[in-house]
Amino acid sequence: MLRRATLAALLLGVGCKEDPPPPSEPAAEPAPPVPLPTTVANDPTHLVIHHADQLDAVDLEQVRILDLAMSPTDQVGHLDQIDPETVCTRLDLVKLAARVPSLQRLRISGCQEAVHAGLGALGERLRVLELADLTLDGVTIGNLARLTGLHTLTLSRVDAGPDPLLPLRALPLRRLVLRELQRDSEITTMIDLWPRSLTHVELEGEWAGHTAMITLSRAEALEVLELRNTRVSNFSLNQIKGLLQLREVVFEGSTFNDKSPLYFKDLPMERFSCTCRRFGDLGLRSLRHSHGIRRLELRETAVTGAGLEVLGELAHLEALVLLDRDLGEEGLGHLASLSKLTLLELSGPIADPSLAGLSALAGLHTLRLSHPELDDRAAPQLQALTQLRWLDLGGTRISDEGLSALAALTELRTLHLDHTRITNRGLAHLAKLHQLEELSLQSTDVVDEGVAHLVELQRLHTLRLDRTLVTDAVIDTLVQLRGLRRLNLAHTVVTAEGVARLRSLPALEVLELTGIRG
Q1: Distance, CA of 333 to CA of 358 (rounded, Å)
Q2: How confident is the model at residue 24 (pLDDT cuts 50, 70, 90)?
Q3: What does the domain layout of the chain look like in residue ranges?
Q4: Residue 347 and residue 324 in contact, taking contact as beta carbons nearer than 8 Å
Q5: In the CATH scheme, what is the homologous superfamily, with its name and number, of domain 433-518?
Q6: Cα–Cα distance for residue pair 223/244, rounded to 1 Å
Q7: Is the pLDDT of residue 101 over 80?
């Protein structure tokens, strides 16, 4: 994980030449026998804690997302650093509530007594809550009922207690996520508490089967349904036929097949996602009845390029994500008939590294190609996609020669070239992409001279150079990119003295510097 911090924090004391102060006298009290781990999240407003004592040394004023990952399940990887017997001992949620004025999202795993004593103190400010590895007993229910601003609740590995759930009815809940519960858990019945406000339900795990779907059938306001690795089969999908507001369905698991889309063919479906190895070309034919679909995501399926012909009947399709399949020229040719298609994401091994047929998709605005075999032979196909604004070629064999085709893509705002074969010479082809705002060159052979080609890209606000070969000499170019807000130089050979010069960048908010020298 990349360490992230505000510019002020990272530059504090950088480049100081004074002699260090003499060591202070040892403290009278012995140091703790086991150090506590510190987890640094990608987002400076997102904090993960594995032991209550960690909270003492942290400023929580800016924290909006807090994960109190304290159950044994969440301690994996940290057991050599903390005392599991004292993880929750000093957790006081009442005191914590006073220290987190900006908190909107909270996750708590374990620490049932602390939840009993103070969860309700967070009052109306909390919007999103996950409880994990707990029992939903009467005291916990009472605390939940006090969170009157809550709109999203996730319960993971939570046991049902004997107490009624009725006090929760007053919550303005819109989204409910139930994960890895006990088989046919009574917790499912809480869906009945919000038949007119609940718009999004996610069920995950083999605990959920036909009984859960019967309860779900009464959620008349439901718009989004996610079923992930459950026991729900086509027979149980009959229960969704009456959910007349349902617009998005996510299926994941081996229980779904080619006939599964038929159960929502009369509903106003706009988005469908299926991670289903038993879904193939016949499944696409079943899907053609859902004429209103705008976004389609298919992962780990048996779909072929030939089978994509039927997508021509989905006249409103705007976004297609088709992973782990080789469509071939025939498949890409079928996509050309989709006049509204603006987003395409493809992955998996391919037989034709040139991606013949791609150039026909001239209306694309967003394209991600995760094909390890894709190389410079695809350049002519890419060059024709002049409306592209977002392009990700990370992990492909594109090199400097292929990058020359990108010079024609003058509408590009975002470009990802991580783990490709580009070098300094290739970056010269990007010099005229004056609309570019985000560029990622992680793990490439780029050096200082190559980055110098980017100096005219004054709209650039995000630049990733981590794990490249840049040195302090790159700072001369970086200080001229006056709009930079996010910069990643992690695991490069830049030094603390070089980084100090970045103070002159007026908009820089975030630096990532893990592994630099000094």
Answers
A1: 8
A2: very low
A3: 1-8+35-173, 433-518
A4: yes
A5: Ribonuclease Inhibitor (3.80.10.10)
A6: 8
A7: yes
